[in-house]
Structure formats: structure tokens, C-alpha cells
Amino acid sequence: MNHDDLRYGNLKHMQTVWSEVTPGMVHASWSGHLTACGKPVIEAKPVYKSHPRDITCAECGATAVFDLNTARERAKAVTERYEESGRLTSGETFRLREDAIKAIAPQAFERRRAGDSWNAISTNFLMSTGAATERDGISIFVGKIGLAVIDGLEASEFKGGY
What is the pTM of this model? Predict the structure, then answer.
């Protein structure tokens, strides 16, 4: 493990676990009772035998290998101007940021595990959302939020193998 990444506390106490709700899928847990994606735990490996490479749930994997708070901070920097101008409420900007993280982080986990670069992930996001091809304000705004989330994920990624 890269001990620099332990500054976030992400992996220090993580266990790989299983849930009867998703047979055959390996999750991450910090409580031992619920997985990172909210499913009940039926069996767990000890912390010292757990590693992110064993996780097969993309949502749990994203929670384990990225500091999602860094992604939230980067996205907040984009949405604050819209909130301050009164174009969006704080609730709306919060939902936009959280929805972006919930959509992007698991896909980034899977794509990084498959060997994709951050540039490829960013390009795929921009093309699939229309942020790169559409010229309307909404597409551009979605693109800015998504790129900020991706930037935060890249900056906080676990540097060990997964």
C-alpha cells in the first residue's frame, strides 16, 4: 500500500467483504456491518488481508481507491459561482455534485482497473454526455462539473495496484 494515500483514511481500516444480496461480488467496508454501497455484510476478510485489487463492486471500489471529498471540493469550486449568482440554490448544486460523483467515480474505477488513462476517461465522459459536442450552456456546465470530479479523482487516486 502507498502510505501517502492513508492520509485520507480510505484504506487504513478497509476490509474486503461479501454480502448475500450480491452473491459472488466483493465489496469494501469500514464498519464490518455494511458495505460502502450500503449492503449488509455476511463475511469479511481481516484488514491485513484486504486489498483494493480484490474489490469487484465499482461503487465500493471507487470509495476505496479515491478520496471522494477531493472530487467534491473540485466540483464545488465550479458550482459556487452559480450558487453565489443565484442561478442555482445550494441544494441544487449539492445534488448536481453528488450525482456527478455517483455516476463518474464507479466508471472511473472500472476504467482505471482496465488500464485506461485519465485522458481517455475524461474524453469518454465529454463525448458520452455531449459536453464536447453540444454548444448549449447546460452541456458545458455538466462538462465542467464532470471534469472537476475527474480531476479530483485523479489527484486522490490510490497509487498502489488495483
Answer: 0.86
